[in-house]
Write a structure and sequence with these properties.
six-stranded antiparallel beta sheet, about 30% strand, mainly beta
Length: about 220
């Protein structure tokens, strides 16, 4: 007697034959698709970004915080550049506010011992700290080209809005789902939604084909 497997009828077999998809690929900097930053953003304000299109033309961006921003290929870096020519800990970007200069930002880039170096605006860097500014172009290793974006609130007239009123996000409206269509009563067949014909059957039920007719005895479906 032949046994015909119907996907969804035998869930144990379905799990063996159709394994779950692997976890989604993490794209560095894409917060909605990956892990959060290793820094506590409440204590280290975001004052800029690195932006790159090097990875297949996909936009990538990473926040720059006040203090030290560690850059490299290792997973525990503040900015993880997962590329073959990047060293585990490749570089640091250090940023601070100059209180005696109207809170202007001062930023520096230092190679901490990389194998393939750093290019800053077409100049190859040594191991000494080098000052960086908004819109500088940095190539880490051989292939990761990034633009540095440092935000100066004074320059852009950014300030606190005194009448700002925060609100919670409005929930998305969901269209009501129509009631399932029921299959008319038939002798020996339990009533069930037409869009889910296997709902309610035993998880281990099978369909055996040997002729014509339907037999639901014993929790299994048999076509005689």
């Amino acid at each position: 007697m032949d046994e015909t497997y119907v996907p969804g009828l035998n869930r144990e077999k379905a799990r063996r034959d159709y394994p779950e998809a692997s976890a989604p690929t993490y794209i560095p900097g894409m917060r909605e698709q990956g892990r959060p930053s290793t820094k506590d953003e409440g204590e280290t304000p975001v004052v800029g970004f690195l932006y790159s299109l090097s990875k297949g033309g996909e936009p990538e961006w990473w926040p720059l915080h006040i203090g030290q921003n560690k850059i490299g290929k290792d997973a525990d870096m503040d900015i993880c550049l997962a590329e073959a020519s990047i060293t585990g800990h490749h570089a640091n970007i250090n940023i601070k506010r100059m209180r005696r200069s109207g809170n202007a930002l001062a930023a520096s880039l230092v190679d901490v011992g990389s194998k393939n170096g750093i290019i800053l605006n077409d100049e190859e860097l040594d191991y000494e700290p080098h000052s960086i500014k908004n819109e500088d172009i940095v190539t880490f290793g051989l292939n990761y080209k990034c633009v540095i974006i440092l935000v100066d609130p004074t320059r852009y007239s950014l300030d606190e809005a005194p009448d700002f009123v925060a609100t919670s996000a409005a929930p998305r409206s969901r269209q009501a789902e129509p009631a399932p269509t029921m299959i008319p009563d038939m002798p020996g067949i339990p009533q069930m939604p037409a869009n889910d014909p296997f709902e309610g059957f035993n998880d281990n039920a099978t369909i055996n084909i040997s002729g014509s007719g339907v037999d639901l005895s014993g929790g299994a479906t048999k076509i005689l």
